[in-house]
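Minutes, project check-in

Agenda point 3 was the complex the collaborators sent over. CS summarized: two entities, 377 residues total, and the question is how they sit relative to each other. Sequences were read into the notes so everyone works from the same version.
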Amino acid sequence: MTGTRPATAAGDVARDVAGDVAAYALRLGDDALVLAQRLAGWVSRAPELEEDVALANIALDLLGQARTLLTYAGSFHGLSEDDLAYFRDERDFVNLHLVELPNGDFAVTIARQLLFSAYQLLLHERLAGSADETLAGVAAKAVKEVAYHRDHAVRWALRLGDGTAESHARMRTGVERCWPYVGELFESDPLVRRLAAAGVAVDPAELCPQWTAFVGGVLAEATLAVPDLPARITGGRRGVHTEHLGYLLAELQHLRRSHPEAATW
Amino acid sequence: MTADRPVPSGPVPSGPVPGQREWPLWEVFVRARRGLAHVHVGSLHAPDAELALRNARDVYTRRQEGVSLWVVPAAVITASSPDEKDPFFAPAADKVYRHPTFYELPDGVRNL
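CS then shared the predicted structure for the full assembly.
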């Protein structure tokens, strides 16, 4: 992986941009890492063996994205992907709240997958044209993976929503559980606006109309209403999280932290 | 999740429990690359054909095993019975003239 990491002689401005890029890569990497950890929780517990494999495959795709993005983010600070994944505390994680929500039942997980993969696909499609080579490369690879994640979620959402009374009720509950966290997906802040202006990042606010049209279409076909629910307080990008992330990180990090001197795995 | 399934009371039924139908079984065929035939690789459970295809992609092609997939409902396959093995297959054993072993293969003929 070669990026646009500035040479040591680069000026303050270039260093600022580099800092922004690192922070941005960390956001996308944390989204992928936390959701990968969540989905890994389905291994051995999915409704069928086949679905177990499908969710594990999606988790591993996301873990692959996380590794590249965290490695890239760390490269600006002399840190490894493991340093970032295992030795940061909750307040230093900058993922969206949606990805840290508990798995719930299968319908909740499918709802979360639908809402997030639809978002991630739009994001990576645009990010593939980034002026930053590394981000563009990660995004181009991720587009193919996430297109499948979205397809998987859409097909299940249709079958559960337009299935039996029981499956419809569960899918509706799943969408309603996740919906209050949607607003955060499209929040922009000065960092993404600076990077978007430089052609490096995607301003998530721009993705909202397409996302709304796509997800609205799927929900309608699945005979599900678009929920009318107030948005939750946001703050994932600033390190302010729901009560669920701490437990997730404890499980993710405790082994590595118990053996900080272990050289290899 | 299995924990959510109701526990049947009374004697354990031998057939499918009403209202708890198992997903049907599908046979999976993978074409490894263009020009080769689809080869049976195994089976899986799925609620319908579209999801069977996607499950097949996840279970059988995650290591780049194929470029094309078929899924066939196992129920529509009519198979020969092991009990009929002898009448079906044994008579071919001593009929060597059915094998093209009495011919010289021309040079340059491959895949035969």
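Noted in discussion: The first helix of chain A runs from residue 12 to 40.
Follow-up: revisit at the next meeting once the mutant set is ready.
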